[in-house]
Specification:
This protein is α+β, with helices and mostly antiparallel strands. The protein has one domain (11-64). It contains 3 helices and 3 strands. The longest helix has 13 residues, at 52-64. The radius of gyration is 12 Å and the shape is globular. It starts with 7 loop residues before the first strand and ends with a helix.
Length: 66
């Protein structure tokens, strides 16, 4: 894989990795905790995708705080 291309995960993939509900990710996006990237034009707003590197960084920060 080209390291310059970021890997985007679906909301379901991200939720599974983080062991949270997809609704939690939607709330975190609205609150700015873990921002999503919008792709496509579904219902005029696009589908949420999450950068794999953002998920990994969140896990790293969260794990260190425990």
């Amino acid at each position: 894989m080209n390291p310059d291309i970021e890997e985007l995960l679906t909301i379901d993939q991200a939720a599974k990795i983080l062991k949270v509900n997809a609704q939690t990710l939607r709330r975190w996006d609205r609150q700015g905790i873990l921002k999503a990237v919008r792709v496509g034009t579904r219902r005029g707003v696009g589908d949420r995708r999450y950068r794999k590197q953002d998920i990994e960084a969140y896990i790293s920060r969260h794990h260190k705080s425990k």
